[in-house]
Amino acid sequence: MSTRSMNDSSNHSQGRRSSFTMNPMVWRQARTVKKAAGQVDEFVTALTENAPFIERQTPNSTISVWQRSEIQTGKLLGEGSFSQVYEITVFQPHTSDANSNIKPHDAAQRTQLEQHLFEEQHKYALKQPKRDMLRKKQDFSKAVSDLVVEAQYLSRFDHPNILALRGLPMGGTEAFESGRFDSYFLILDRLTDSLEQRIEKWKKQSPTPDPALIPRKTNYALQIANALLYLHQRRIIYRDLKPENIGFLGKHQAQLFDFGLVRELPKGNAYDDEQYSMSGAGSQWYMAVEIFITGKYNLKADVYSWAITTYEMLTESKAFANMHKLQHVAMVCVQGKRPKLSLHKFPPKLETVIRAAWGQSVSARPNMLEVVRALEKILPELGDEDACVWPTVEQDDGTYAMPKSRRKSLLAESSDDEDDDDESLDAFDTTLDAEIMKEMKGGSAARAPTYGDMEMHENEYSLSSIMYADH
Predict the structure, then answer these.
(1) Residue 385's CB: how many other CB atoms inside 10 A?
(2) Is the CB of residue 241 less than 8 Å from the CB of residue 291?
(3) How far is residue 368's CA from residue 257's CA, in Å, rounded to a whole number?
(4) By the 8 A CB rule, do 48 and 149 touch?
(5) Is the predicted pLDDT of residue 366 greater than 90, yes or no?
(6) pTM above threshold 0.90
(7) What is the per-residue pLDDT across 289-305, written as a single tens digit (0 to 9) for each?
(8) Which of 386, 303, 316 lies closest to 351, judged by CA?
(9) Spatial distance between the Cα atoms of 167 and 246, rounded to a whole number of angstroms
(10) Where is the composition biased (Acidic residues) (predicted)?
């Protein structure tokens, strides 16, 4: 689908008039923007090919369209590798010819957004490419492409725990004809805070996690699991779950945001175990172990990330603190070690869900529907004493052999040396093996005072006893 006609409401011409004086520096910037924008359609087509959800699902009719010059922004709220998010302070609709062809329905959406902000019923934020991306045309094209892909999906999502898209630029990527680097943008609900910020707040309030917060935290975990389930039922993998990408509307409505890395899997059953070759994406500490070992993964990679994120929320600590990247590969991805849950006073059923969700075996790891059903059973019980011991199934002895192609990829990620010949690969293998041997001998394990020792993940954990238990 062309990004220049994402939905009917965005088929308006931005016009070619510039909103700034063409001094030489601005002229060069405008030229770079226009050249880079020419690649965006090509990039987006490649990223969204074989995307049945985008093809069959029409965009929401509530999305308004704006020119960038109609939106005033305030302070910077946050930024990522390619984009920045600013608060929106006011909408100032133009009365120029460029807006004369706006359809009545679109005009109503614009008026509603403007009034909501003016009357302080809602707060909004604007996400746009970073100016720094202009240093390389390819980087700017990539930054804009990620935004466009995010808009393609957000404009079609409808879930209370997924951040809502409220507005887009008139004309889609044609807005870049103005020469402004920020001509393409997303108008989003403004979040109160992020889970990362909330964890830091909890830590300041108490030196150790407050057990009274476990029901509330479990509720947050369930909300995020429901958002992921919504995606998985549509064969969409999120790929970047972490506390930084979870926010809140008001006090307790969790929101999943930042969808630049989402991808659709080929048509099939939402819960099949077939794995697919895709590039590694997201933060290493939250990425499923199979991504490092085989380079192939499926929707259950999000389940693993959910478990790590939930653990960090419950313990208010990093799962792999004080660990460098090679240690993480050796101890967690290859050996199968995880933080020692027995050091924390989790309700036994909740502990079982986490153990199952970060399981080393992809086939034994539960899908997101099973996680949601288990949490729905657990949440009403959290105020009670629970001494149940849940059955486990012995895990088959599965030694993961890392293919040479994956070892080469990890070598490239862990070294500035561009040489990936056999000698360099042998040296990398020696380093990796040494990390494993040291850990097995107890010689130099990375230890974090927040969770103590790591432990082997030796069993597969079934959620059936939780999901189907009678109250």
Answers:
(1) 6
(2) no
(3) 18
(4) yes
(5) yes
(6) no
(7) 998 888 888 999 999 99
(8) 386
(9) 21
(10) 414-425
Confidence of residue 354 (pLDDT cuts 50, 70, 90): very high
Both tokens of residue 54? 């985008």
- β-sheet bridge partners, residue 128: 84
Q: How many CB atoms lie within 10 A of CB 266?
A: 9
**DSSP 3-state assignment of 400?**
coil
Structure token digits, residue 197: 């910020």
Phi, psi of 443 (to 5 degrees): -80, -45
Which of the residue ranges 35-44, 113-122, 181-190, 416-425 would you say has the lowest mean pLDDT? 416-425
Residue 61 CB coordination number (10 Å): 11
Cβ 130 vs Cβ 25: under 8 Å = no
| Beta-carbon contacts of residue 43 (< 8 Å; ≥ 6 apart) | 141, 142, 145
Residue 65, Cβ neighbours under 10 Å: how many? Answer: 27
The three-point CA angle 376-377-380 to 5° equals: 85
Q: How many Cα atoms occupy the beta-carbon half-sphere of 235 within 13 Å? A: 17
Which residue, 163, 215, 452, is CA-closest to 317?
Answer: 452
Strand pairing category for 296-297 and 337-339: unpaired
Using the predicted structure, report yes or no on whether residue 404 has a pLDDT greater than 70.
Answer: no
Determine whether 139 is exposed, middle or buried from the number of CB atoms within 10 Å of its CB (0-12, 13-18, 19+). Answer: middle
Query: Which residue carries 């099949």 as its tokens?
Result: 272
Q: Helix H segments across 417-469?
A: 422-441, 464-467
CA-to-CA distance for 377 and 135, rounded, in angstroms? Answer: 52
- Backbone φ and ψ of 297, nearest 5°: -160, 175
How buried is residue 114: exposed, middle or buried, by Cβ count under 10 Å (0-12/13-18/19+)?
middle
Q: What is the pLDDT of residues 121-176, one digit of tens each?
A: 789 999 999 888 777 777 888 888 888 989 999 999 999 999 999 999 998 888 87
Spatial separation of the C-alpha atoms in residues 307 and 303, rounded to whole Å: 6
Q: How far is CA 52 from the centre of its chain?
A: 21
- DSSP string across 167-194: EEETTGGGGGGG--TTSS-EEEEPPSEE
* 155 within 8 A of 54, measured Cβ to Cβ: no
Q: Tell me the torsion sign for CA atoms 329, 331, 337, 340.
A: negative
